[in-house]
Amino acid sequence: MLKPKPLWLVSGAAIAALAFSLLGQNKTAKTDIATTKAGSEFAPKTAPAAPESADKAGINVQSDAEREALFLADVTTRFAPHITIKHAQIRFLEQVISYLKAHYPDDWQSRVYAILQASFPELSDELMGKFESLQSYNSWLVADREMLQKMSASERRKLLWDKRYAAFGMEAEEIWAAEIRNQKIQDALESVEQNPDGDLLSRAESVVTAIEKTYGDNSQHFIRSRQTELLNKFLDLPSIQSELRDLPATQRRASLREVRATLGMDNEALDRWEALDQQRDDSWENGSAYMQERQRLLGNDNDAPQTRELYALQERYFGRDAEQIRREEASGFFRYDRERRIGRE
Amino acid sequence: MKHHHPLVTALLLSLSLIATPTLARDANKTTYPIVFAHGMAGFDDILGYDYWGDDYGVYVLDTCQWGEYYCNHDINSSQESFVASVTPFASSEQRGYELYQDIQNYLASSGHSYVNIIGHSQGGLDLRKAAKLLKDAHGHRVVKYGISISSPHRGSPIAQYVLNLQPGVTSILETLAEYFGNVIYGGGNDAIAALKQLVNHDFDPNDGVTTGTYAFNQNYPAGTDNIERSRSFLTGQDNGNMNPALYLLKELWTEIDGDGYASYDANGDGALGTGDGNASDNDDDGLVGINSQQMGYRMEYWECYGCLDYAWTQTNTGYVADLNAPTSTQMTSHAWKINQDHLDIIGVPPDTFDEMEFYAAITDFIADNGF
């Protein structure tokens, strides 16, 4: 648990000094917990009792002032490196709101400015403005929730952004920058779906190009860390499924290999995938044959009672997995009685 | 070479002492990757918000590269994770099978042989089936930690309420669309099967199929056969702080009384157990009573100022291996419950819950315990 970490110097010297001395005390207590914890996943008997309360931060603290100092030291340390970034400001404000609501439920709003001044005095007015904007935006989100839910995704997105701009101006784009980034990838996938020209490979490459534009220097890291999710998203597109379905099995496996390589998978991964594809092709061939024979035996009645003949059929097709298939059928789920999602199952 | 004044040197020395090891803010890297299994409805777009994200679209286990800001600064920069996606509305027989396939895909891509799974809501049921199929396929337990969050392991009264078209519900589909958005109308969904899954008993004994959490729990238990360590986080919150959508459920429909013990669904609300006569004592998170949520050992989430938050395993309510037969304590105790509603712990605003630190703390817990 103990790792070197520089303690950031924070603004507000008096608060910091008090906080540091208290943090020192707290550190000792937490170190004990951490040391005990390292040897076992179970909470140590000596750990602070944590029964019902949502907030346990004040457990080792004697007074409100000490607790406040600990909180301030924590958030300033945590947010100081990024506090000029608008998204960090909003996350910082969420922490302040959460803390104040927990400890001062009746007059928490009136205490916000004092906390902002104590933590980031040079930014307190700007942060107070953000706090008011956030309150206004969240109130709207609550009030118009029903209307939002009835909208299509694109209508909803447009209205959300109108309201975000109204509340935060252009800074909304910095607050929701990650969402914008995610949306660009989604837009690229939709574009692939709406423009079905080109082969599978070129369409996969167009998604990669969109990622490179969106993520810049971090694009390779993003692709490497989210390979399977990106592959899933690409393969889920109806036009891609349709194209894969039309290909003979051997060619399909080759195309899938190319697509996966485009997403940066190395030869070892591609070989593992090819083995999985082969195994799944065999399973679906077997499963489809079973469903046909099952239908001959029972007709189209999927709810027909299990019979000795059906048991024998399941044993013949699935061997040691027959029991699992029976279990699923008893619940109404037939894994081979639906359109296969190529490359995903 | 530049020489400092002795006072400056002393100051630098004292600053270096300040920078000596202190309790860390960043979680250790897990040995095995973390797989996220989502709940009913959402894969990455609930009303435009990312499911496994903060409320502004940052993925909770997005690792930081040099100079990058929009990521989780509390985790190790090489932490590995995978976000699974299954049919939004379907039984856990189907969703668990799809989760299994998705994990197989991830294992092929990554080369890993084991995973940890964190499942929210119905994702906590799905992960049990996925664990069973993974063990069958590989011949050994693939799932190390299986951690459920706010999962209706023994049913949710809301599911039965909607299925019965009780007051306020005129159409199952429209009702689900109202609460989950238009995703319900997407191809492949089966809203009825999804809801029947989350009722404890077999909702319709005459429909030719056996549904519900009771039968599912018998087939996919929480013991150590398929999952090396089963754990669960419980959530429950007072009405005043609840997400408005969930608060409306309580106001307009029914308020769950979810902390009474019975060995069967004694009050007939669709969840195992009963109430204690007081529905307003924070005994549910808007969708699930606390008496449905424990699987394996309970976990505690402990917020820390000055260090990364902690997640612990707590043993004093015992271990729930047979999900259909929890003890009285396991159904009635509020111990270690997180004071949040069903949606606070995923990326549905507005809330002030720190999703980034919560999932970093779970990551650290898993890493520190060898998985």
Short summary:
With 345 residues, chain A is mainly α.
Structure characteristics:
heterodimer; A: 345 residues; mainly alpha; 17 helices; disordered N terminus; B: 371 residues; alpha/beta; seven-stranded mixed beta sheet
Folded structure, characterized:
The complex is a heterodimer of chains A (345) and B (371). Chain A is mainly alpha-helical and 345 residues long. Chain A is built from 17 helices and one strand. Chain A is elongated, with a radius of gyration of 29 Å. Chain B contains ten helices and eight strands. Chain B has a seven-stranded mixed beta sheet. Chain B is globular. At the A-B interface, β1, α1, α2, α3 and α5 of A face β1, α2, α3, α5 and α7 of B.
Please trace the helix and strand order of chain B, writing H or E for each element.
HEEEHEHEHHHHEHEEHH
Query: What about the largest sheet of chain B?
Result: 7 strands, mixed
Judged by helices, strands and strand pairing, the structural class of chain B is: alpha/beta
Biggest pleated sheet of chain A: none
- The separation of the N and C termini of chain B measures 49 Å
Strand share of the residues of chain A?
under 5%
Q: What global shape of chain B is seen? A: globular
From the helix content, strand content and strand pairing of chain A, which structural class follows? mainly alpha
Strand content range of chain B: 5-15%
Number of strands of chain A: 1
Overall residue-averaged pLDDT value of chain B: 88
Instruction: Indicate the radius of gyration of chain A in whole angstroms.
Output: 29 Å
Rg of chain B:
22 Å
The order of strands across the largest sheet of chain B is: 3-2-4-5-6-7-8
Number of helices of chain B: 10
What sequence of helices (H) and strands (E) makes up the elements of chain A? Answer: EHHHHHHHHHHHHHHHHH
What count of helical segments of chain A does DSSP give? Answer: 17
Distance separating the two termini of chain A: 40 Å
Helix content of chain B: 25-40%
